[in-house]
């Protein structure tokens, strides 16, 4: 998903990508050919890719579900850490999805985490944002609105909400992860270092960059400053991502297009 999301742009997400090229690209990240084909087949079963045969060649296209997820992901990733936080409305979601809808429940949980929600207890989730629009659309998409409730509000005065938030989100682990991200990618801000990269190296680096940065969408609730301090290296990580992602784009895209052209 990271490879496709980064290199099949929003205006071309209906295009087919040659299967042999995808297998070759996945080898750059340690996948054997057999493991890559198993991963692609699994994505087809999960309605993330559609397999299309054209003569002797097989191509994969993104499903409508995947295009929706990638659009949502783009909004979340590219806005992360960019807007000043005020005292926001919070969103609380609780659900009691039946056991026979286990797949829908699993998909709901994944998407909630990507929207910055943390789990309070089984079936109860909270986010320090007004996520009503996104959650209503998600519940409708998964057809589970009848099994869920949604509430907007603010923390009550006089409660130790900072301690509560620290139980819901791993804030210390988040701060450490931002530090590791900066330590790994900071040297590529030097233009001479980037220019020394081959197209293949730029592709691998850009994919790793977006793959690692997108994890922050699952981990960082972007809490208001009066509840928890901003992670020390968040601003540096955001700056690095927004500098390197476009700077590596041309060379990385060249490699992607060359390898996925049969």
UniProtKB/TrEMBL annotation:
Gene3D superfamilies cross-referenced by the UniProt entry: 1.20.58.1460, 3.30.70.2650, Winged helix-like DNA-binding domain superfamily/Winged helix DNA-binding domain (1.10.10.10)
The Transcriptional repressor PaaX-like C-terminal domain, residue ranges: 169-257
Domain of life: Bacteria
Domain Transcriptional repressor PaaX-like central Cas2-like: 86-158
Residues annotated as domain Transcriptional repressor PaaX-like N-terminal: 2-64
Pfam families: PaaX (PF07848), PaaX_C (PF08223), PaaX_M (PF20803)
Gene Ontology biological-process annotations: DNA-templated transcription
PANTHER family, A to Z: PHENYLACETIC ACID REGULATOR-RELATED TRANSCRIPTIONAL REPRESSOR, TRANSCRIPTIONAL REPRESSOR PAAX
Protein name from the UniProt record: PaaX family transcriptional regulator
Organism expressing this protein natively: Longimycelium tulufanense
């Amino acid at each position: 998903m990271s490879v496709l999301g980064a290199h099949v742009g929003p205006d071309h997400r209906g295009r087919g990508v040659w299967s042999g090229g995808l297998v070759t690209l996945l080898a750059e990240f340690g996948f054997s050919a057999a493991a890559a084909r198993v991963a692609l087949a699994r994505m087809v079963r999960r309605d993330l890719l559609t397999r299309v045969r054209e003569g002797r060649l097989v191509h994969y296209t993104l499903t409508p579900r995947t295009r929706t997820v990638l659009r949502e992901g783009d909004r979340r990733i590219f806005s992360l850490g960019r807007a000043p936080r005020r005292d926001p409305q919070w969103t609380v979601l609780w659900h009691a999805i039946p056991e026979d809808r286990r797949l829908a429940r699993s998909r709901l949980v994944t998407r909630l985490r990507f929207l910055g929600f943390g789990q309070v207890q089984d079936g109860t989730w909270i986010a320090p944002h007004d996520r009503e629009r996104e959650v209503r659309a998600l519940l409708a998409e998964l057809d589970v609105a009848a099994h869920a409730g949604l509430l907007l509000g603010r923390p009550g005065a006089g409660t130790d909400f900072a301690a509560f938030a620290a139980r819901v989100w791993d804030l210390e682990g988040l701060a450490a992860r931002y530090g590791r991200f900066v330590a790994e990618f900071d040297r590529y801000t030097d233009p001479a270092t980037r220019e020394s990269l081959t197209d293949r190296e730029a592709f691998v680096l850009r994919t790793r960059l977006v793959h690692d940065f997108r994890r922050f969408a699952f981990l960082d609730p972007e809490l208001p400053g009066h509840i928890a301090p901003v992670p020390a290296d968040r601003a540096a990580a955001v700056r690095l991502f927004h500098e390197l992602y476009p700077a590596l784009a041309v060379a990385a895209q060249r490699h992607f297009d060359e390898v996925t052209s049969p």
